[in-house]
Design brief:
Layout lengths: L4 H11 L4 H14 L12 H16 L4 H18 L6 H16 L5 H25 L5
Helix pairs in contact: 1-6, 2-3, 2-5, 4-6, 5-6
Organism: Streptomyces ochraceiscleroticus
InterPro entries: Globin, Globin-like_sf, Globin/Proto
Family: Belongs to the globin family.
């Protein structure tokens, strides 16, 4: 899979006007298809929806700045380790993210766009998983 920043940016521009409706859809999809992850989240999701929306926007805005993206993802990975997230949760999250983006992108969503987002998500997963592993307390 090849990450195409232009496709990421243009599809996000199509999704962006929908704001946190995208993250509401994402969480509804995630919890419907993977109910086992629901206990990892607060009962009221508004703040979490806002955080996810801001993180997604930050990722897209800094897509060409690898150092910034890696720092953002490392911070997210370390925090997610503290929430009880596990590497095996990433495929479910990725599937729900792709579903939400595809739902709101309309004609901006193509097979190439999906492949580009999937490639980006592979990078997100790798960096966050490494950060989660580094954040785990070491046995003494």
């Amino acid at each position: 899979m090849t990450l195409n920043p232009a496709l990421i940016t243009s599809s996000y521009a199509a999704v962006e006007p929908h704001g946190t409706a995208v993250t509401k859809y994402f969480y509804a999809h995630l919890f419907a298809h993977h109910p086992g992850v629901r206990p990892l989240f607060a009962q009221h999701m508004e703040e979490q929806e806002d955080r996810l929306w801001n993180a997604l926007g930050g990722l897209v805005a800094n897509l060409e700045d690898t150092g910034t993206v890696v720092r953002i993802l490392q911070g997210l990975g370390a925090r997610h380790a503290g929430y009880g997230a596990l590497p095996e949760h990433f495929p479910a999250v990725g599937a729900s993210l792709i579903a939400a983006l595809a739902h709101f992108a309309g004609d901006a969503w193509t097979p190439e766009t999906e492949a580009s987002w999937a490639a980006l998500y592979e990078t997100v997963t790798a960096v966050m998983t490494d950060a989660m592993a580094a954040a785990e307390p070491k046995a003494s």
